[in-house]
Amino acid sequence: MDNLSATSELSLTAVGESPQLNVSLQEQLAQHKALIGAIANIQEPLLLDEVLKRTVTEVRQLLKVDRVAIFRYFPEWEAQGEFVAESIENQWNSILETVARDGELNQQFAQLYRQGEKREASQDKLLKQFQVQAELAIPLFEAEAEWGILCVHQCNDPRQWEAWEVEAIQYIAQQLNIILKRDRALQELQQQAVQRDRAAEQTKGAKREKAIVATVEKIRHSLDIKTILQTTAQEVRQLFEVDRAVIYRFNPDWSGEFVAESITDGWKQLMQEQLSSPALKENVSECSLKSLATLPIIDTYLQDTQGGIFNKGEEFRACNDIYNAGFSNCYINALESYQARAYIIATIYRDRELWGLLAVYQNSDPRYWQEQEIDVLTKISAQLGVALQHVRLLEQTRQQKEELKRAFQKLRKSQAHSIQSEKMAGLGQLVAGIAHEINNPINFISANLSHTCGYVEDLLDLVKLYQQNDPNPSVEIQEKTEEIDLEFIDNDLPKILNSMKFGTERIHQIVLSLRIFSRLDEAEMKPVNLHEGIDSALALLQHRLKATPERPEIKTIREYGDLPLVECYGAKLNQVFMHLLNNGIDALETPHEGNKKTPTLHIKTEAIGENVVIRISDNGMGIPEETRSRIFDPFFTTKEPGKGTGLGLSISYQIIFEDHKGRLSCHSQPNQGTEFKIEIPLRRNQSN
Predict the structure, then answer these.
(1) Rounded distance, CA 637 to CA 644, Å?
(2) Beta strand residue intervals within 144-222, DSSP E
(3) Cα torsion angle, 491, 494, 496, 502, sign
(4) Residue 28 phi/psi, 5° resolution?
(5) What is the pLDDT of residue 557?
(6) Cα angle at 54 between 48 and 57, to 5 degrees?
(7) I need a surface site. Which of 35, 447, 505, 549 has the fewest CB within 10 A?
(8) What values do phi and psi take at 669, rounded to 5?
(9) Which stretches of 550-595 are DSSP H helices?
(10) d(CA 554, CA 344)
(11) pLDDT tens, 562-591?
């Protein structure tokens, strides 16, 4: 699993290098995510049968194979067994009933699977008989004993198993081994409890054995480590009817601290004592661990010996009476200060690593511990270790799942930003090209329009001169004059020419706005007039500001402050202005009952200290709180399908926050409108 995580982290550093690498990374992330999900689902049940059923289902879905089955050996018969769980596609034959009835066939399967190899069906007639063309077989172990085989079958055609598939199935097999070990230990405890319950002379011991099972079940019912530890201490104290039960945990330097405690009334609380005595947490001696009490004299025995005898495989220490154990006077004095008279200490191992100690503690009188009591405590400590291992594995799974989720979100966000940036770059080039193409003919029209106006005036003056010199024109001229309505042309033609002149000036303004908006010559940071960028965005959105059948014209108020040139990425900031103004217009176009206000966009700029602040607000219906908290998330949108991608505000936030080291915030109140506030530094090497 660590290899899978390392591979994912390495792949993430290469995001954006090539489309092929992005596809490969997505495949690795998907495989990693699927494996983590499968492990989480497998570990969730508490009963072994359910674990096995979930395992075959999750593995078949993970690897997309035709059959996954678990073969279990019969403990009493050599090389024989049966398939106890299977997940299979409908078109293939089940092998559960067939193999379970034939002992000889079982033996052949067992011998075959013990090899634990990848193989093709052509290499073995038995596999071919059961429609298997390719197979992965991984052995399963219960502690050190061979328990069975996890089999993965491809039936429809041969298959070359990939490295990640082999690694994934091996990791799942490891998790099953841990669960089998846990289940075996619980079964042993349950069997011992049943056997001792049948012996009349061991009635008290049988009750304790039953209590063990109940204790272990309570331990296993929680996945919170603090709850597990405190539950264990409480249950053990009640089970042994002692004055104190505690759990001690080692630190990496072999110091440690008490992490759980249950005591009867009248005795000091070690959990509180260690808070007021730092030496206890830093240095805990062999004596203090035997007595499980606070230590007034600093003794670094366990630190110096790296866990002492407990780290050398000893499972317990017991003392019936501290006054008859041959201890030194110094040691007895220490034990008396701990209120100790008798104790049992059992080791807690988490996956072969000494994690801590579980102890029961008799304070008032000596106590002669029975062998079964010592056995019970060691078994509970073993089960506690399994529970702690289970919690750690689940926590690792959760962390890996969160890491994968964050990596996926980062990848998705990065890809969205790249796509949008490419789109905007392409749009900028297109806009600049269109502006250039429009500019040439409009310059031609504009240049010739002034000459045309002069020619028309000369012609009209000539006509008037003819009328003055020839007051009685011919009938033909009079008829033509009336036909073309010469008087109307004389009045209207100058107006038409003036309108054409105004139109060419308007086109000039639009072209200028397009060129300012695209800013292809400003890909790097340089001093920019922000007001020009805002004006260009408004000019391009002019058609959206006009009145419609649903609403009146949107009024724009520009309250520009005295801004210096700002060092920034001009084209990127223009994208932000366009997104925010578009959103404001969308808000003003949304139907709002009872709103009699004139729809208005208000743009205000000002320089405050070393920063420039741009506010773009509308007087629409506002944004609800539950929506406002997510508006900067990638792909989040409240617009209808086809009307919004959910990328505009997310990319705007990235442009302001990452590219300009500034802030983009949103303030809104119901029925009062919405304001977006941009704050960016005036200069390049400056941040808020």
Answers:
(1) 7
(2) 145-154
(3) negative
(4) -65, -45
(5) 93
(6) 145
(7) 549
(8) -135, 140
(9) 570-589
(10) 83
(11) 999 999 888 788 888 888 998 888 888 876
- List the beta bridge partners of residue 362: 342
Q: Identify the residue whose tokens are 């024989």.
A: 80
The H-assigned helical ranges of 80-162 are 96-101, 103-114, 125-129
Measured in degrees and rounded to the nearest 5, phi and psi for residue 16 equal 95, -10
Q: Choose the weakest-confidence range: 32-41, 190-199, 250-259, 604-613.
A: 32-41
What is the rounded CA–CA span in Å between residue 182 and residue 14? 41
Residue pLDDT, tens place only, 450-467: 778 888 888 888 888 888
Let me know: does 485 contact 491? Beta carbons within 8 Å: no
| Tokens 């090899």, located at residue | 115
Question: Which tokens is 288 given?
Answer: 């203090």
Nearest CA to 62 out of 37, 93, 29, 89 is that of 37
**C-alpha gyration radius of the chain:** 41
CB within 8 Å of 419: residues ≥ 6 apart: none
| 3-state class percentages of the chain: helix first, strand second, coil last, to nearest 5 | 55, 15, 25
DSSP type of residue 623: -
- More confident: 570 or 15: 570
Asked if 261 and 269 touch (Cβ cutoff 8 Å), the reply is yes
Tracing tokens 């005591």 back to the chain, one arrives at 263
Three-state SS for 47?
coil
Cα–Cα dist 423/57, whole Å:
43
Mean pLDDT of 189-201: 67
Report whether pLDDT(125) > 90.
Answer: no
Q: How many residues does the chain have?
A: 688
Could you give the angle at the alpha carbon of 184 between the alpha carbons of 383 and 54, nearest 5°? 100
Q: Which two tokens stand for residue 323?
A: 């006054």
Task: Annotate 236-248 with b (16+ C-beta within 10 A) or e (fewer).
Answer: bbebbebbbbbbb
Distances (CA, A) of 595 to 509, 556, 583, 590: 34, 18, 18, 11
> Which string of DSSP letters, residue by residue, matches 356-417?
EEEEEEE-SS-----HHHHHHHHHHHHHHHHHHHHHHHHHHHHHHHHHHHHHHHHHHHHHHH
CA-CA distances (angstroms) from residue 638 to 550, 551, 665, 669, 677? 20, 21, 18, 17, 21
- C-alpha triplet 293, 294, 300: angle, nearest 5°: 105
From the list 629, 535, 640, 529, the residue with the least C-alpha distance to 578 is 535
pLDDT recorded at residue 605: 94
- Read off φ and ψ for residue 382, nearest 5 degrees: -65, -45
Where is 22: in which H helix or E strand?
Answer: helix 19-43
How many angstroms separate the CA atoms of 243 and 33, rounded?
48
Q: Nearest CA to 179 among 394, 485, 460?
A: 394
Spell out the residues 6+ positions from residue 605 whose beta carbon is closer than 8 angstroms to its own: 530, 531, 534, 559, 560, 561, 563, 612, 613, 614, 615
**Could you give the C-alpha distances from 557 to 398, 553, 595, 616, in angstroms and in order?**
52, 13, 19, 10
Q: Which two tokens stand for residue 435?
A: 């502006």
Give 345's Cβ-side CA count (13 Å radius).
20
User: Which of 619, 574, 578, 583 lies closest to 601 in space, CA to CA?
Assistant: 619
Q: H/E element holding 342?
A: strand 342-350
Quick check: 60 pLDDT over 70?
yes
